[in-house]
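Check these lines:
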Amino acid sequence: MTGTSPLSRDKLKKALHYFSELVAAHPEKSRLELLQKVQLQFDLSPADCEFLNKHLGKEAPESGIGT
């Protein structure tokens, strides 16, 4: 993310933190649904939204440990 302002980076960091809290609190909801909530709440730029969707939009794989 070259060329981003410190304010934009700070907003993205807060959005990521909030997203991780939402995922932990609402495991029944899809990651994309939670990302949309975060993107609207933090008024993220289209580039930031694309970055988050690309890197966090896919559901986490189920752990095969213990099965």
Notes: The chain has a mean pLDDT of 86. Helices lie at 6-25, 31-41, 46-56. Residues 7-56 form one domain.
